[in-house]
Amino acid sequence: MFHSRQVQAWCLLAPALVLLVCFTYYPISNTIWRSLFGYGVQMGEQFSSEHYRFLLDDEVFWLVLKNNLLYALITVPLSLAIALSMALWVNQKLAGKAWLRLAYFTPTMLPMISVANIWLLFYSPEIGILNKILGWFGSSGVNWLGDPSVALYSLMAMSIWKEAGFFMIFYLAALQTISPDLYRAAALDNASRWYIFRRVTFPLLMPTTLFVLVNAVLNAFKLVDHLFILTKGGPNNATNLLLYYIFENSFAFFDTAYASALTVVLLVLLMIMALIQFALVEKKVHYQ
Question: Domain ABC transmembrane type-1 spans what residues (predicted)?
């Protein structure tokens, strides 16, 4: 009887295990294998274990890594803060709040390619909407995507605009699970709105914050579409991010071994960040 239950359990798990092996574990192991034993274009006929050494001397890699860390450092907290602010706003009793929620969530429903083309109309030097507005005040305009000192921040603004509405949905759902009795008890004690948020609302939102934080960090390191449409990593790699650099090495330079080595670095970096997030944030998470 026990043996038959084990067989039944494994049969139920088999479809999920097959999918995990085919689309998760095998690609990861194959990438590690290629990074260690494949051949690459840049290193000639040497084994691509040398690609890790070449990676340390690759100035473009360090620039790309710096760009991606800066991108994540700015977009992640701003996206979360704006998402939480929007969720708090649309969770109140407002006239037409359903339309307001829809307006906030609409950018999330658009494909990234469409979003990039929309923002291209904003950022175009001569016909762009932003430069038209600046022209009203006598400014000659800004080369939003062509100036190395501005281009990366322009991409950040677009990403925050798109992702904040997505994270808002999670915060809004979490806010609606908080018992109103807690707010009534705080009101009886004449607690201020800031005190209620700091002592009641935000602590109860920590499980959602942890979930959203992990997803936001992952999103910050896996964007390719908008770079392909807007800048292709330029000017002079000022907007190049790690995953796009991997894409370039694999599909533009056909150096799959070096691209595999870069992918391993990206996976290790994401694992370290995930461990740090769980170590620092999960201590403050209290599940109801």
Answer: 65-277
pLDDT at 44: 46
Averaged pLDDT, 111-124: 88
97-109 vs 151-175: helix crossing angle, rounded to 10: 130
Would you mind telling me the total number of residues written for the chain in this entry?
288
Of 32, 54, 31, the C-alpha closest to 42 is: 54
Q: Where are the alpha helices (DSSP H) in the chain?
A: 2-20, 26-37, 50-56, 59-90, 97-109, 112-123, 129-136, 151-175, 180-188, 193-196, 202-204, 206-220, 225-230, 242-247, 256-281
Q: 153 lies in a domain? A: yes
Write the CATH number for 181: 1.10.3720.10
Domain-located, residue 9: no
Angle subtended by helix axes 26-37 and 256-281, to nearest 10: 130
The domain total for the chain is 1
Tell me the whole-structure pTM to 2 decimals: 0.87
Three-state SS at 47: strand
208, 174 Cβ separation under 8 angstroms: yes
pLDDT of residue 111: 85
Residue 8, class by beta-carbon neighbours within 10 Å (0-12 exposed, 13-18 middle, 19+ buried)?
exposed
Q: Is 122 exposed, middle or buried (0-12, 13-18, 19+ CB in 10 A)?
A: middle
Mean per-residue pLDDT, 204-221? 91
Does residue 288 have a pLDDT over 50?
yes
Q: How close are the terminal C-alpha atoms of the chain, in Å?
A: 38
How far out from the chain centre does Cα 138 lie? 37
Q: Give the pLDDT mean for 20-49.
A: 73
**128-149: pLDDT as tens digits:** 889 888 888 888 889 999 999 9
Domain assignment present for residue 24? The answer is: no
